[in-house]
Amino acid sequence: MSEIEKNENCCCGEASRKVLVEYLYLDLQTCDRCCGTDYVLEEVLKTLAPALQLAGYEVEFRRIEMSTRELAEQYSFLSSPTIRVNGYDICSTVEENACGCCSNISRTAVDCRVFRYKGQSYEIPPKEMLAEAILRSTFSVNIDDNRGCGKYEMPENLKIFYDGKNVKDKCSGGSNS
What pTM did the predictor assign? Predict the structure, then answer.
């Protein structure tokens, strides 16, 4: 699902409001964590989209592979996978654990995000968690806007990933296998 049509017949002739869901990830070819999160997020959006449209919201879904250090810097990328709604990370903190798939991609030890929900950690977020976060982000009025405060500094973990991936790509002629 790349974009969901907006509701042309919004009440009172008002223009539709936008919900931008961005999925930032390192790999959708081999990483179980990124692939699983992508699948769950898409399922949740398919379920929520009709209700959001009924409420006058246009939903746009963007998958953005953080394939280079430059892209990671452009998006102030902190951990993989990341889900943002209207520019806000749905997680208030970054928790990580070892990710075998991304470690294999870069041939270095890499940690990736875990999602905390109701006292438990998940490598792939539960549908309920994503639905709650998307709805809360969409309908919340008093979000503390701290985006853009301070200079972005790439976490050491991502620097190691990109450095390892670049060395591996040079050694294998650009292949990620």
Answer: 0.79
